[in-house]
Amino acid sequence: MTAVATAAWTPRAPARTAALTETLAVAGRRLRHLRRAPGRFLGITLNPLLTMLVLGFLLEKSLVIPGNGSYQEYLFAGAVIQGGLAGVGPTAIAVASDVRGGVIDRFRSMPVSRGAVLFGHTLADFLVGLGSLVVVTGFGLLLGWRPHGSAAAVLAGFGLIAVFNYVMLWVGVLLGLASRSLETISSLTPLVVTVLPFLSSAFLAPQNLPAWLRAFAEWNPVSAVAQACRELWGNPSAAGSGFPAEHPALVIALTLGAVFLLTTVFGLRRYRTVGN
Questions:
Q1: How many helices and strands in the chain, by DSSP H and E?
Q2: For 111-139, how does the pLDDT look when each residue is reduced to its tens digit (9 = 90+)?
Q3: Secondary structure (3-state) at 126
């Protein structure tokens, strides 16, 4: 029985090792490109920094949250989430550029696993996103953000942000494979960065939104992630009423899980046929 099991498992190990090596190679290629074009890093970092400056200072007295807590502390969760959304565009453009330039066709002609190419893209951009998160967190501390939870809770909050960021990168992968037009991607992705946070509790309390938008804002996964992070960090919260506000963890698991499943499945399928 042991010999049979060993024989069955022996061929699989090299395949897994090769897939990991290929993923790291693609990620290394992507990181080298980013090193030559630091504007991408600046783009995903400047979005949340400008939000904290504009909303946190210029408009702070015009924005009120329930309980009269610190708006800077309330805003921080929304700002780091916006940084994750800002990563959708660069990833989509990079994938679309590889499709238009024939790089994807060359990868498919080589004995490289299809998952390695896409996972390599997301791994590289995920590492860049983590670097951006560090910069934004330091800036937030300078502007007055303070966590009040335990060390484990604070780390869990940042872990949740990291998961959210990675899932959003797969949205960018699917968008880049589905649309070869860089102009279309450049026009659509700023809407994601702007509209989704403002139609959530990222920057404004849901109670302050019009009634017809309140339900959408409460069910928006951005609201659930922001609410969960504020609870973990001990920051002021202004969640709405109903199921999403009372069970943000479940809403996060369902929505992000569904987005990740759909984008990876359809992304890998699209990768097989793109360009044909």
A1: 13, 0
A2: 677 778 889 889 999 999 999 999 999 99
A3: helix
